[in-house]
Amino acid sequence: MTxxxxxxxxxxxxxxxxxxxxxxxxxxxxxxxxxxxxxxxGDRFSMRPTNADEQAAFREEWESAGSRPLVGTAGxxxxxxxxxxxxxxxxxxxxxxxxxxxxxxxxxxxxxxxxSVGEVLRSWRAAERELAELTQGSPEWAxxxxxxxxLRDRYRELFRTVRPQSGG
Length: 168
Prior knowledge:
By secondary structure, this protein is α+β, with helices and mostly antiparallel strands. Helices cover 38% and strands 24% of the residues. The protein has a single domain, classed as PAS domain (Beta-Lactamase, 2-Layer Sandwich), CATH 3.30.450. The protein has a six-stranded antiparallel sheet. Residues 1-6 and 161-168 have low confidence and may be disordered.
């Protein structure tokens, strides 16, 4: 099951990829102050060095596809150097991008992932079929149930309407 709290970490990023604003939950999750965040390069929290050409190609492809919400998981390097796994949702908005993050269980070193509606639904249905075959209360059953809850969260996130958020 995800560890999503009631307060989501919200970060506003301008069209050039600079950090503009963030709420307290985001600053706490990232382990930085707002001033530090604003001074940070776009890839400061990346686990591995990023390739500018790959990032530009990915952004162009995403924007040409209508900038649908981008939802997935990735490792994140906090300001203090600690690493965590996060579920993210990134959406285009009128001034650039809105990124929402939640800490989730899992290895920060695992490869990043991006979820599509079809992929999430297929995985969810497969997990429900698997759950029906398992003994209720067994460790495997509990793990599969947790996976289903995570998939439900991903599905909801893919369709969530962005509401205006106040930063910091």
